[in-house]
Amino acid sequence: MSNAEPQGLSALEIRLQRESVLPDHEARRHGVTGPHIAASKFTPPAAAPEAKSEKPAKKKKKPLLETKNLHKSYRKGRLTIPVLRGVDFAAEEGKITTIIGQSGSGKSTLLHLMGTLDSPDSGEINFANTRIDKLNIRQRDALRSRAFGMIFQFYHLLPELTTLENVLTPIMISHGMWRYWAARKKFRKRAEELLEMVGLGHRVTHKPRELSGGEMQRTAIARALIAQPRILLADEPTGNLDEQTGGEIMDILKRLNREQNLTIVMVTHDNAIAEQGHETIRLTGGRVEKT
Ligand SMILES: Nc1ncnc2c1ncn2[C@@H]1O[C@H](COP(=O)(O)OP(=O)(O)OP(=O)(O)O)[C@@H](O)[C@H]1O
Ligand SMILES: [Mg+2]
């Protein structure tokens, strides 16, 4: 059975690999070789032009992450609170896109929906040309752990674990303890390199309570990068930090974008921070208003 699908790999995961959503190493980890890997590198030959034209039409780049007419309300008892009322959002690959808006305008709601932490009432969310708003829990977990990195205002580090262990948690969860254990040296090396990269090489054995706010956010950034995501979703990553420390966190994010072409979508209520992105959108009245 040469075309048998590898065990434990859902149709969605295979599709995501084909669409190059999941990194190649994940495909190899699942033993997926040949067409699945090749598909992500394969460029189909261009179709023969129907009519001769002097200038080819300029192709608009497809966004890596987009929402179409997204609606979300919360229900509190008999009360319905409409938050998103038809949000069209697009984040281009390799860019930093910032989302700004007043407190309560739905920034976190939008980011959580795009990160598949919650489901919209209606509308579409697409990631790398794949619809992701109707995935089941297992598919969401697979997508989040392999393609998305997330950072939050309050870091969400585990207090009992060291900095290094916190960075390794996504790998432990997605690989399971046995497979993590088998390749632990490789993963520890990667975690140490990431901590070095965010300037925390000297804090690997510290626990969160022994770190400053900026150091905790650096740890959270390293943790978000351990699984080599295609996109980083950040909810007010500088919101709990003073101006200088927030600036240092922004410098790290901009360096990641510049040097590794990492796509970043970042929520902030700070105009000065938002302006450091390539593109900024404002949420007002539950819709997007381009700034
Ligand atoms: N789980 C929930 N249940 C009920 N209402 C909610 C829930 N989560 C958010 N809301 C409401 O939805 C609205 C948007 O919340 P959201 O957290 O997305 O805003 P935000 O723009 O991120 O605000 P902030 O800048 O203060 O973080 C708010 O009015 C909030 O009270
Ligand atoms: Mg918020």
UniProtKB/TrEMBL annotation:
<dbReference type="InterPro" id="IPR003593">
    <property type="entry name" value="AAA+_ATPase"/>
</dbReference>
<feature type="region of interest" description="Disordered">
    <location>
        <begin position="1"/>
        <end position="69"/>
    </location>
</feature>
<keyword id="KW-0067">ATP-binding</keyword>
<protein>
    <submittedName>
        <fullName>P-loop containing nucleoside triphosphate hydrolase</fullName>
        <ecNumber>3.6.3.-</ecNumber>
    </submittedName>
</protein>
<dbReference type="Pfam" id="PF00005">
    <property type="entry name" value="ABC_tran"/>
</dbReference>
<keyword id="KW-0813">Transport</keyword>
<dbReference type="InterPro" id="IPR027417">
    <property type="entry name" value="P-loop_NTPase"/>
</dbReference>
<feature type="domain" description="ABC transporter">
    <location>
        <begin position="65"/>
        <end position="291"/>
    </location>
</feature>
<dbReference type="GO" id="GO:0005886">
    <property type="term" value="C:plasma membrane"/>
</dbReference>
<dbReference type="GO" id="GO:0016887">
    <property type="term" value="F:ATP hydrolysis activity"/>
</dbReference>
<dbReference type="InterPro" id="IPR015854">
    <property type="entry name" value="ABC_transpr_LolD-like"/>
</dbReference>
<feature type="compositionally biased region" description="Basic and acidic residues">
    <location>
        <begin position="15"/>
        <end position="29"/>
    </location>
</feature>
<dbReference type="GO" id="GO:0005524">
    <property type="term" value="F:ATP binding"/>
</dbReference>
<comment type="similarity">
    <text>Belongs to the ABC transporter superfamily. Macrolide exporter (TC 3.A.1.122) family.</text>
</comment>
<dbReference type="GO" id="GO:0022857">
    <property type="term" value="F:transmembrane transporter activity"/>
</dbReference>
<dbReference type="GO" id="GO:0098796">
    <property type="term" value="C:membrane protein complex"/>
</dbReference>
<keyword id="KW-0378">Hydrolase</keyword>
<dbReference type="InterPro" id="IPR017911">
    <property type="entry name" value="MacB-like_ATP-bd"/>
</dbReference>
<dbReference type="InterPro" id="IPR003439">
    <property type="entry name" value="ABC_transporter-like_ATP-bd"/>
</dbReference>
<keyword id="KW-0547">Nucleotide-binding</keyword>
